[in-house]
Amino acid sequence: MSTTIDTPDTMVSSPTGAVATAMRRYAWTLGLIGILAILLVFTKIIQPSYGLTGIQGLAISVLPLALAAVAQAVAVIARGIDLSVGSMMALTSVVAAALMEDRSEGYAILVVIGVLLLGLLLGAVNGSLIVVTRVPDIVVTLAMLFVWAGCALLVLKTPGGGSAEWLRGLTKGSLITPFIPKAALVLFLVVGAIWLPIRRSRLGLSLYAIGSAPLAAYRSGISVARTKIIAYMLTGLFSALAGLSLTASTGIGIPVPGPYTLMSVAAVVLGGVSLAGGRGGVFGPVIAVVILSLIRTDMTFMNVNTNMATVAQGLILVGVVMIGSLIQLRRDR
């Protein structure tokens, strides 16, 4: 008869240990999902008529901001920040709307591909400037915020243009069942199709490595400069997707950046991504966007001044930052 002694490795490899490890790893995201569920129940209580139509409307409204939050999360994971996300959204939105106006549905496919390539180019410019000049990310992207915003106004001075019917159809209504809004399905499919393969690849490991310790990443053979540029290219790509979703949901191009940049940073913080880089994911910020939007919706239902929603969001972020700092201090000890 032989006996087997449980070691930490065998305990982790067991189903129970694997579940416990996964829960610890994704504790913040699971907590956000719990908060979202409570908010949905609270919304139903204060507004009994809130149902499938309200959920579909919520999915459409949060789609551009959720993609902007993903764009910002990629930059922050790589120990950066991009304050030009909103301007890149505006530029790609007006370019798409201007080119699709009074054009065929097939031509719109080429426009979408071109706009995505434009997003990659905008991100490459941001990343290259940061790497070449060695000026802090926040300064470079703040300057490029004005550059891309000015370019958007050169394309369209006022909201206008058009959108293909198939593009608008991607965000409206539901699919298979009324409980699955098309906008939500598009969001998770697009983000999952792009981010998950990258996250599991060598590039994903490099992004987290330069975010955690750039010097150690460099000494281990990772090209920090190239990885940094790629990170900003991904940010530009997701910003272009956000701009396209804005055109799809409104049917026109909007040259004004809007609050997307600051809201994307707020969603990243609430979503559990460390501003120091190297920690977090992209799905936490997506859930955070829905939570922040639902809080504003609930305050509207309760006839609370909409300005108080901004105050509430700010207080939530302060609380999240404090909790994150306490957790980090505890880990350091």
Polypeptide structure, described:
The chain has helices at 8-13, 15-25, 27-46, 52-77, 85-100, 105-133, 137-155, 165-169, 182-199, 202-212, 214-219, 224-250, 260-270, 283-301, 306-332; strands at 174-175, 177-181. It has 333 residues and is an all-alpha fold. It has a single domain (52-327), classed as Orthogonal Bundle (ABC transporter involved in vitamin B12 uptake, BtuC), CATH 1.10.3470. The protein has a two-stranded antiparallel ribbon with strand order 1-2. Strand 1 (174-175) and strand 2 form a beta hairpin. Helix 4 (52-77) packs across helix 14 and helix 10 (202-212) packs across helix 12. The termini are far apart. The model is unreliable at 1-12 (pLDDT under 50).
Helix content: over 70%
Percentage of residues in DSSP E strands: under 5%
Structural class comes to: mainly alpha
The radius of gyration over CA amounts to: 21 Å
Q: Please write the string of helix (H) and strand (E) elements.
A: HHHHHHHHEEHHHHHHH
What's the pLDDT, averaged over the residues? Answer: 87
User: What is the number of beta strands?
Assistant: 2
Shape: globular
Distance between the termini: 44 Å
Q: Any guess at the CATH architecture? A: Orthogonal Bundle
Low-confidence stretches: 1-12
Number of domains: 1
Largest sheet: 2 strands, antiparallel
Largest sheet, order of strands side by side?
1-2
Helix run count: 15
**CATH-defined topology:** ABC transporter involved in vitamin B12 uptake, BtuC
Q: At the first level of CATH, what is the class?
A: Mainly Alpha
Multimeric status of the protein: single chain
